[in-house]
């Protein structure tokens, strides 16, 4: 790719979040004749990538083979939102030849008892956590989503949807703000338009929507995009539970620049790492710093600031129990991950030893 072609491509892709830093990273790949693109959708070894046509400079979507950059580790596999280097001349179809390093990534624990991770979205600026006001918000689940969002490296934003269905939205927002220190909590209604202008202003650049089915993620995506780009289904009137409208993660361009990634509803919200937990429960971390002993277990030690806050009611018991539960889950996934890595290293060592043995006569 020529320097002029790369400049045109960079200018066009800036609406999708391309930055001068990415320009520098991509320079060697451009010299190899590859084209920068952003992955919009991944599906069974292939993906849709958005790139600037080398001839016209206009954006277009191309189907590409992503198997060459696949990996046994799911975290390293191509994901919606990744920046990729595409070989448009590959035969029989364009091929993703490399992935650029991720700036941010939402990673949750794999389903069931697995210890590996699953990337939900990459290179996003804001994680928009949607929770429906049609039912009593599950504060514990929102705390999980917040820890997941902080862990990603992006900025969390809680959006309470379907405000037109309740009369006490502001009271519920106050409750959610208590468990979301340092996070903006918005009340919106796609039906009436309430709060949507503020939401657009609070979520520039690339945004990923996460939440349970029925939280209104697809409706929010349509509202942000200014058109019906995602199908929407009604929640069940009997229990206000939603159906899986979105079945895959898809990157949607926004009219004012930037993009939004709508994700399927999450039944399991397992954390994969511990840094996000400290930020999601920052007030507990701050209390712990005032304990008399630096290794305080917050159980029976004298001078425990956490125990004092619990006794005084400053720290709600529910909040403390939620923190302990997520902390135990993090410790469990860390132990399982270490065991899996040790097993993988042992397997690789056996392969090396076997290949180094001289052939039998």
From TrEMBL:
Residues 122-267 form the EngC GTPase domain. Its cofactor is Zn(2+). The keyword Flavoprotein does not apply. GO terms for cellular component: cytoplasm. GO terms for molecular function: GTP binding; GTPase activity; metal ion binding; rRNA binding. Keywords: Cytoplasm, GTP-binding, Hydrolase, Metal-binding, Nucleotide-binding, Ribosome biogenesis, RNA-binding, rRNA-binding, Zinc. It holds the Pfam family RsgA_GTPase. Residues 114-269 form the CP-type G domain. Its main location: cytoplasm. It is found in: Cytoplasm. It is an enzyme of class 3 (hydrolase). Zn(2+) binds at residues 291, 296, 298, 304. GTP binds at residues 161-164, 211-219. CDD domains: YjeQ_EngC (cd01854). InterPro entries: G_CP_dom, P-loop_NTPase, Ribosome_biogen_GTPase_RsgA, RsgA_GTPase_dom. One of its GO terms (biological process) is ribosomal small subunit biogenesis. Its EC number is 3.6.1.-. Binds 1 zinc ion per subunit. Belongs to the TRAFAC class YlqF/YawG GTPase family. RsgA subfamily. Monomer. Associates with 30S ribosomal subunit, binds 16S rRNA. NCBIfam families: ribosome small subunit-dependent GTPase A. One of several proteins that assist in the late maturation steps of the functional core of the 30S ribosomal subunit. Helps release RbfA from mature subunits. May play a role in the assembly of ribosomal proteins into the subunit. Circularly permuted GTPase that catalyzes slow GTP hydrolysis, GTPase activity is stimulated by the 30S ribosomal subunit. This is Small ribosomal subunit biogenesis GTPase RsgA. The lineage of its organism: Bacteria, Bacillati, Actinomycetota, Actinomycetes, Kitasatosporales.
């Amino acid at each position: 790719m020529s320097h002029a072609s790369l400049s045109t491509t960079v200018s066009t892709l800036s609406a999708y979040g391309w930055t001068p830093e990415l320009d520098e990273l991509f320079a060697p790949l451009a010299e190899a004749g590859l084209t920068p693109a952003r992955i919009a959708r991944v599906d069974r070894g292939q993906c849709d990538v958005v790139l600037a046509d080398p001839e016209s400079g206009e954006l277009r979507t191309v189907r590409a083979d992503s198997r060459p950059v696949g990996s046994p580790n799911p975290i390293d596999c191509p994901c919606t939102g990744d920046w990729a280097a595409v070989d448009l001349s590959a035969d029989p179809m364009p091929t993703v030849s490399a992935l650029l390093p991720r700036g941010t990534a939402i990673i949750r624990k794999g389903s069931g008892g697995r210890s590996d991770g699953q990337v939900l979205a990459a290179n996003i600026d804001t994680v928009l956590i949607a929770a429906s006001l049609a039912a009593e918000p599950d504060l514990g689940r929102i705390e999980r989503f917040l820890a997941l969002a902080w862990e990603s490296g992006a900025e969390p934003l809680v959006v309470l949807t379907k405000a037109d269905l309740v009369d006490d939205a502001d009271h519920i927002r106050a409750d959610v703000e208590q468990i979301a220190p340092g996070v903006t909590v918005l009340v919106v209604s796609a039906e009436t338009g309430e709060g949507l202008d503020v939401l657009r202003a609070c979520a520039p650049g690339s945004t990923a929507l996460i939440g349970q089915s029925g939280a209104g993620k697809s409706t929010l995506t349509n509202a942000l995009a200014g058109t019906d780009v995602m199908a929407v289904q009604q929640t069940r009137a009997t229990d206000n539970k939603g159906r899986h409208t979105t079945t895959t993660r898809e990157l949607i361009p926004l009219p004012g620049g930037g993009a939004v990634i709508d994700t399927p509803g999450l039944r399991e919200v397992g954390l994969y790492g511990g840094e996000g937990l400290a930020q999601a429960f920052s007030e507990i971390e701050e209390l712990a710093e005032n304990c008399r002993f630096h290794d305080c277990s917050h159980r029976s030690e004298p001078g425990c600031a956490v125990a004092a806050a619990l006794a005084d009611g400053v720290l709600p018991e529910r909040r403390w129990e939620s923190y302990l539960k997520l902390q135990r889950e993090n410790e469990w996934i860390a132990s399982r991950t270490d065991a899996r890595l040790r097993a993988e290293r042992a397997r690789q060592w056996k392969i090396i030893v076997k290949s180094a043995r001289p052939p039998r006569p």
